[in-house]
């Protein structure tokens, strides 16, 4: 469960540390670093959130459930 928490905190800390990406260079397809770095984090955050979700489910011992079934 702690690993799931770490996976959820990493994107928050990475995006709150603005001086690390508040620059124009390097550009990617004409987009300044500031924009494509944040857009890249959309996909990274999705992957980390899904991984944290799956880790939490497996830690609870239930990976699937049926509709109407108590959890």
From TrEMBL:
It holds the Pfam family DUF3311. This is DUF3311 domain-containing protein. Keywords: Membrane, Transmembrane, Transmembrane helix. The chain crosses the membrane at residues 32-53. InterPro entries: DUF3311. It comes from Nocardioides oleivorans.
């Amino acid at each position: 469960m702690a690993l799931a928490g770490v996976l959820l905190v990493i994107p928050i800390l990475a995006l709150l540390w603005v001086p690390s990406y508040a620059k124009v260079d390097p550009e990617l397809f004409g987009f300044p670093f500031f924009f494509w770095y944040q857009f890249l984090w959309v996909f990274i955050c999705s992957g980390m959130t899904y991984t944290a979700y799956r880790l939490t489910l497996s830690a609870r011992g239930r990976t699937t459930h049926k509709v109407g079934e108590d959890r």
